[in-house]
Amino acid sequence: MRYEIASSFLTPEECAQLNGVTQYGYDNGQMTLGVNTTLRYTSRIDTTLYNYPQGVLDLAARVRAYCGVANYPIISGQGSDAIVTNYMPTGADIFAYKASQEPGTNSAQLWAFIVTQASESGGVQQINGIEYPVNVGDLYCYLTSENNQYTTAVLGATPRICWMFGNWVPAADWENGTIIFGG
């Protein structure tokens, strides 16, 4: 499994701006409960509720270019413009799952993630049973349709906020390095 990470991809100021966008969406009903949860709120499900500011769209282009997927199709129906933000208060987790491949094409889902606010503890990404701790502002990505993932329960008073950017890619192109990360 290919897992890539760019430490400190975002500055603390950029993370704070994104946290403001997420908090505004949460406070103003622009997020819905995620699947199989009573606590995690997301912009993934109802794409009509969230209109991202230009800065978020610019960040999505920057992330996709860095991950080498700017010319690959975005994952439609998964957040507006395949951009998703999650707000996870105390007790929230992300259930264990493997995303689906694109029907009829066998394209894999590649998602890039940035945690912009960490909880006091918990909220740790697990992929195939292995923990992958990250710091606020780190960019990391992997094929979510080829690997099992889970995020542990958030603990403490500070909600975990994460941003995600998705593209369809041929799994082999990601795994064999044809798609260049960090370019």
What does this entry look like structurally?
- It is a single chain.
- This protein has helices at about 10-25, 55-65, 170-175; strands at about 5, 30-35, 40, 85-90, 95, 110-115, 120, 125, 130, 140-145, 150, 155, 160-170.
- With about 180 residues, it is α+β, with helices and mostly antiparallel strands.
- A seven-stranded antiparallel beta sheet has the order 1-10-6-13-4-3-2. Strands 5-11-8-9 form a four-stranded antiparallel beta sheet, with no helix packed on it.
- The mean pLDDT is about 90.
Average pLDDT across residues?
A: 91
Q: What structural category do the secondary elements indicate? A: alpha+beta
Question: Helical stretch count?
Answer: 3
What is the ordering of alpha helices and beta strands?
EHEEHEEEEEEEEEEH
Radius of gyration: 15 Å
Give the overall form: globular
Give the terminus-to-terminus CA distance.
20 Å
Q: How is the biggest beta sheet arranged?
A: 7 strands, antiparallel
Instruction: Work out the helicity level.
Output: 10-25%
| Largest beta sheet: strand ordering | 1-10-6-13-4-3-2
Total count of strands: 13
Instruction: Please state roughly what percent of the residues sit in beta strands, choosing from under 5%, 5-15%, 15-25%, 25-35%, 35-45% or over 45%.
Output: 25-35%
Low-confidence stretches: none
